[in-house]
Structures are given as structure tokens and as C-alpha cells.
Amino acid sequence: MNKSVSAALLVAGVILLVFGLSAYHSASSDVSRFFTGAPTDKALWLLVGGFAAAIVGFLGLVRK
Question: Concatenated DSSP letters for 19-62?
Fold first, then answer.
């Protein structure tokens, strides 16, 4: 994998994590957690996607 693609994935992953954390702490997610015990699907997908992209990007940068 190209180093620039890996760096872009790492940056995109961090950005998605920031948006995911923001969505996780939003009012709609609080209401969802109150009634269902789980945050909204949007928050979960942003967190999972951000984490996966950040890991793939980091591993691409570390790998020789």
C-alpha cells in the first residue's frame, strides 16, 4: 500500500472518530441510550468506521 494512501486513511479515520464521538454525545444519542440502552446507529458506524480506517492507515504506515 502506498504511504500517502495510508496517511490519508489514518487522517480520515481520526476525523471519523471525532465525528463519531460528537454524535455519540449528542442529544439524540442520549435519548436513544435512555430508551434502548444503545447509542444511535450513526454514532456506532462512525466510531467503527473511524477505528477501522485509522488502524489500516497506521498499519500501512508502520509496515515496510
Answer: HHHHHHTSHHHHHHHHHHSS--HHHHHHHHHHHHHHHHHHHHHH
Domain layout of the chain by residue ranges: 3-62
Q: What angle do CA 56, 48, 52 make, to 5 degrees?
A: 5
Looking at per-residue pLDDT, the higher value among 45 and 39 belongs to 45
Which residue has 489500516 as its cell numbers? Answer: 56
The predicted model scores a pTM of 0.85
Amino acid sitting at position 44: L
Residue given cell 465525528 in the structure block: 19
Q: Name the packing angle between helices 3-24 and 41-62 (round to 10°).
A: 150
